[in-house]
C-alpha cells in the first residue's frame, strides 16, 4: 500500500519542479514524479555509490527509467552518500524524497556512511523553502537506531532529530501509512507483516532565510 495520490500531494511536488528521488529502487516514485513535474521539470534518480554493487544493480534500474516513453526528464545519478555538492549545485532542488530507505543509511553495508553529512548535503542541494520528505518503517518509540539492521525499522524521533540537526525545520507529518495493528516487533519482511507495516511520513523544510 503506497497511496500515491495522498503522498504526492503531501510532498508538494508540482509541475516544473526539480526532484531528487533518493534510493529509487525499481523507480515507482521516480516515474510518478517524472509525470507530475512534466517536460519543464527534472527528476534525479539518485543511487548512493555504496549500493551500486548490489546484485539487483540499482543504478542500471535507475538508468532504464530515462529510456522509457514519457520519462526523458529522469536522470540517474550516483555518488557517495555523504558527498557534498559543488558550489554550482547548491540551491537547485525543490523536493528531496526518500521512501522506506532512510534507515538503511545506518546499516553496515553503507560502509559507515556519515548520516549527518548526508542530510547536510541534501540541505545544500535544496532551494531555500524546498522540502525533504522522509518515509520509513516505524520502530518502537524511544528505540533510536537499535533496529535499523535487524528489523529494518527506525524511530521517528531519531529521524526528526537527525534531519533537524542538518538545519531543516519540521513542516508536517501524514498518518496515511500508519497501521495501529503493527506492534513494531517484527522484521518488515516477515510474512505476517510484510506490506502492512506502520510507516511514518515526515516533511521538512529548508528555511527561506
TrEMBL record:
Gene Ontology biological process: methylation
The protein's name in its UniProt record = Methyltransferase
Which GO MF terms are attached to this record? methyltransferase activity
Keywords, A to Z, come to: Methyltransferase, Transferase
Q: Which SUPFAM superfamilies match?
A: S-adenosyl-L-methionine-dependent methyltransferases
Question: Origin, by domain of life?
Answer: Bacteria
Amino acid at each position: 500500500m503506497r497511496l500515491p495520490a495522498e503522498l504526492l500531494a503531501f510532498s508538494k511536488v508540482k509541475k516544473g519542479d526539480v526532484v531528487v528521488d533518493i534510493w529509487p529502487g525499481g523507480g515507482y516514485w521516480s516515474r510518478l514524479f517524472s509525470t507530475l513535474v512534466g517536460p519543464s521539470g527534472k527528476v534525479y534518480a539518485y543511487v548512493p555509490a555504496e549500493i551500486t554493487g548490489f546484485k539487483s544493480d540499482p543504478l542500471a534500474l535507475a538508468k532504464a527509467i530515462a529510456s522509457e516513453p514519457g520519462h526523458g526528464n529522469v536522470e540517474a545519478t550516483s555518488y557517495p552518500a555523504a558527498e557534498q555538492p559543488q558550489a554550482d549545485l547548491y540551491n537547485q532542488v525543490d523536493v528531496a524524497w526518500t521512501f522506506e530507505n532512510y534507515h538503511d543509511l545506518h546499516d553496515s553495508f553503507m560502509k559507515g556512511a556519515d548520516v549527518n553529512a548526508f542530510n547536510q548535503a541534501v540541505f545544500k542541494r535544496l532551494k531555500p523553502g524546498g522540502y525533504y520528505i522522509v518515509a520509513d518503517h516505524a520502530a518502537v518509540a524511544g528505540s533510536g537506531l537499535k533496529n535499523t539492521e535487524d528489523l529494518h525499522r527506525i524511530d521517528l524521533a531519531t529521524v526528526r532529530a537527525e534531519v533537524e540537526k542538518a538545519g531543516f525545520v519540521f513542516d508536517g507529518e501524514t498518518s496515511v501509512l500508519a497501521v495501529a495493528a503493527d506492534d513494531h516487533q517484527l522484521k518488515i519482511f516477515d510474512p505476517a507483516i510484510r506490506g502492512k507495516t506502520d510507516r511514518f511520513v515526515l516533511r521538512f523544510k529548508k528555511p527561506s532565510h
